[in-house]
Amino acid sequence: MLTVSTVNVNGLRAAARKGFREWLASTAADVVCLQEVRAVEEQLPEGVSDGWFATYAHGPKGRAGVAVYTRAEPSAVRVGFGTAEFEDSGRYVEVTLPGIVIGSVYVPSGDVGTERQEEKNRFMAAFLPYLAELSEKASTTGSEVLVCGDWNIAHRDLDLKNWRGNRGQSGCLPEERAWLDSIFADLGYVDVVRAEHPDVPGPYTWWSYRGKAFDHDTGWRIDLQVATPGLAARATTVDIERAASYGERWSDHAPVTITYSD
């Protein structure tokens, strides 16, 4: 069995104060992928990753940052995916464990009509061939690939509550959704949560801190586990670990935790 959890922590230092430590101590996950760490190791609370092999990719000061925590020591690690612009952006890191490569990705959020959206477009264009490369390597070696993270795109209308009001906004753009189509239809990857819940709204993984979004479950499903088909077919349990109340949240995202059979 392999249990993997992914969550955007919205700043690991703040999350550690609000309950991330307790969650990490109690999780049954073998691998935990983090996004938006927003700190280097020297800035993190002492002991925050005790008992884990922690692999980080840092971004510009106070921005981005991803990590993978594993209970077993990885045989290899990689930061970035070979595109110079994003090598030091803190947006991708991967580890190799027996029979599987697991990546943590933080796709830029974007903002229509701004450089942030252009950055997101460049990231998507560069990341797609790397995903193809990973899939091809896995196919030739008989291994699997799992890329977890905050993809910052609601693939279908079912993936956000207020889809009508967000048409034309970053995260819902036709070209962004088409990019995910390419990952699933052309490269053969599987959105594991959607495969397990094919025709239901959500389950949402992010809720704005503004207004009553969390209380009304006005969310987005943008935190995904994207797997090669062999691994996706082995998913046995899917859990969106939504906090019991607004006050118990330690991030504006919820962990997405999936168990895969041997």
Tell me the helix content: 10-25%
Residues in β-strands, percent: 15-25%
Distance between the termini: 5 Å
CATH superfamily: Endonuclease/exonuclease/phosphatase
Class derived from helix and strand content:
alpha+beta
Number of domains: 1
Largest β-sheet summary: 6 strands, mixed
The CATH class designation is Alpha Beta
What is the alpha-carbon Rg in Å?
17 Å
CATH topology: Deoxyribonuclease I, Chain A
Oligomer: single chain
The SSE string, one letter per element, is EHEEEEEEHEHEHEHEE
User: Order of strands side by side in the largest beta sheet?
Assistant: 3-4-2-1-12-11
Architecture (CATH level 2) name: 4-Layer Sandwich
Word description of this protein:
The chain is an alpha+beta fold and 262 residues long. The chain has one domain: 4-Layer Sandwich (Deoxyribonuclease I, Chain A). Helices cover 24% and strands 24% of the residues. The protein has a 6-stranded mixed beta sheet. α2 runs parallel beside α3. It is globular. The model has no long low-confidence stretch (mean pLDDT 96).
List keywords for this structure.
single chain; 262 residues; alpha+beta; six-stranded mixed beta sheet; 12 strands; 24% strand; metal ion binding; manganese; Endo/exonu/phosph_ase_sf; hydrolase; Exodeoxyribonuclease-3
Topology:
Layout: E1 2-8, H1 12-26, E2 31-35, E3 53-57, E4 66-70, E5 76-79, E6 92-97, E7 100-106, H2 115-141, E8 144-150, H3 174-186, E9 190-191, H4 192-196, E10 223-227, H5 229-232, E11 235-240, E12 256-260
Parallel strand pairs: 1-2, 7-8
Antiparallel strand pairs: 1-12, 2-4, 3-4, 5-6, 6-7, 8-10, 9-10, 11-12
